[in-house]
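Figure caption, in words: inputs first, then the predicted bound structure.
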Amino acid sequence: MKKLLLALFVIILSGTCLSAQNTERATFEIGKNTFLVNGEPIVIKAAELHYSRIPREYWEHRIMMSKALGMNTVCIYIFWNIHEQEEGKFDFSGQNDIAEFSRLVQKHDMFLIVRPGPYVCAEWEMGGLPWWLLKKKDIALRSLDPYFMERTRIFMNEVGKQLADLQITRGGNIIMVQVENEYGSYGIDKPYIAEIRDIVKDAGFNEVPLSQCDWSSNFERNALDDLLWTINFGTGANIDQQFKKLSEMRPDIPLMCSEFWSGWFDHWGKKHETRNSTAMVNGLREMLEKNISFSLYMAHGGTTFGHWGGANSPAYSAMCSSYDYDAPISESGKATPKFYELRELLSRHLDKGQKLIDIPDSIPTISIPQFSLNEVAPLFHNLPEANYTENIKSMEEFDQGWGSILYRTKLDASNEEQLLIVTDVHDWGQVYVDGKFIGKMDRRKGENSVILPPVRQDAVLDILVEAMGRVNFGVAIHDFKGITEKVELKTQKKNIELKGWEVYNFPVDYAFSSDKQFKKLSGKTDMPAYYRGTFNLTKTGDTFLNMTTWGKGLVWVNGYALGRFWEIGPQQTLYVPGCWLKEGENEIIILDIVSPEENKISGLRYPILDLLREDGIQTHRKEGENLDLSAEKPVLESTFAPGNGWQTIAFGQSVQTRYFCLEGLNSYGNDDMAAIAELEILDADGKRISRQNWKIVYADSEEIVKANNTADKVFDLQESTFWNSRYSRSVAKYPHQIVIDLGAEYSISGFQYLPRAEADAPGMIKDYRIYLKKESFKY
Ligand code: GLA
Ligand code: CA
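Bound structure (alpha-D-galactopyranose present):
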């Protein structure tokens, strides 16, 4: 009996040991091949949530949903640019109250992992860095640049003031803090990482382990001896392969997948992304069985409200507002089929003392009957005060961070057409002469010119430029907005640079957007304009604004910035959290810079995230085009090694080339698909050449119906995305070809190839040929 009691006591004690609700000092440590809470082994099962992507009123709901999934930890990024929107002015209140968020997580007996950057990526504007850093034009972000480091230290100290006391050692629930984010995909700079580590420690995070996350292919590049190394990869990845090198280099550490991608993010103009739930659950099961800790990125993605979405590059590609991510908990906090599958798995892997709570009720959903907005304030009739500049300047130089900017100048008379060339449009331009719309320029497509008709003397040229998200990944994060360099007028005879600009700035805040001369709307306006309307509710609840008849812009409801809309999709609705609505009258303001097809709006009970309405932009093979290699001689004919991971192939000679063609002849699985995750091309010294100006000129087949597998995925810097020929045997068979224009001539000596990350996936190319050419191939 005594023995039994003692055993019970031990069980109860160790049960409480793993609790995140210790009000007294506890410990979290790295033991041999395991994490330890108060000396007890634990596997971290973390749910990544982003407080800024969830209305504060719903924080607790989403935390409880994560707990109901069976998780024991929450993992968050800290978004520097949302806390320090103006240099030196910090905001950690309300929606930004990270200490309160942490306490709520602890209230539900969960641990917290904090990833304070300074850079976070996360498909968030500039990867979380404040735009005003770019006011120092030559700043080298994410480097030892003195100004960057000075501001980083100030920011981190502020984070420390909020969170350092919430470390587990001081009675809080913070068990681990991450240093920087995936730096290996950006550069090699150990002194910089070491400095960030010290800044994090100096901010007070010196009582819990510090970690570093990267990819299996590059983690050792910046790995510091005193940090815990963790690896990021997605659903379907070959897990043993992902941890192979790490386990060899550090056989004693606990393994952790610091981001296991449950789904993926959406870009404007590209197919909505989903990932298979069985593959996700199988990956997590395998990790649990092997005692590998993980953070599920995202458990709940939520919404990138307002203008906070980022972009990827190359090629420039801005993010949608929905960050649903195909995660187990949907954008509006509902349990999806993935949720139930995962809960079932995690229910069989609970910690000692961990209880699986009931799934919290979901938040009620409402519909809003269709209505029109009855007031309008055209942008051109509501110009703010002008700035003057001789030479064109980017938005940052007018102290403007986000929104739209109008550049206006006068033209000399011309009785012939002239080509207007803008270098560069960041990110979407609309050109007008004497108030008449002439054409648009879309950075995503590399458009930078329009043809102007003959003009009178002193005709007014307007170039309205809308900034979409700043690039959040890779070296292109130095992303200035507006017009970045110059504007030229070109005819056969002359080429002049336009000077002497009036500049009007349109920021994105509600105060600015609502303070307009709104007039009763009669009929249609096809100019860029702010629209205002009201709708009445007898009951509030979550809803999805149906934007399908609107062009391109931003929406505010009751002063809350909901996000961006764009007719091209795939996102066609905007999530409105019910907590931002009220009974009685509600206000809506829409800025539409393209203008609506029809002025009507309604609230749906469900989101539309998968309706693309842009034709022809996605694939890289024109009607009737067939790559003709009959007269070409391959530089190399060879066989890829089987399995996952990078392969380096040398030609054994250097070849002068601009066009690179890889032709796959068959696959290891004897299927008809070809898939490539990434390609790098090596110069004469064996170094990777820049991919910034690469273009896909041809791909014989691309899957865009069942998934987002276009050929440009071979150089989108993401190892988990890939080009795939059409899945269906009847439409696409070997040989498969991809042709890349390198943007300039290079002397090249070989290439690097990364197949898909999944074990035994189809599309693993076996035999292949490489063709190189200075001039274009024949089609
Ligand atoms: C990386 C980054 C994350 C996020 C994901 C993709 O792993 O670390 O911030 O950008 O990719 O969603
Ligand atoms: Ca890729």
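Residues 677-678, 713-714, 716, 718, 721-722 surround calcium ion (ligand 2) (CB under 6 Å).
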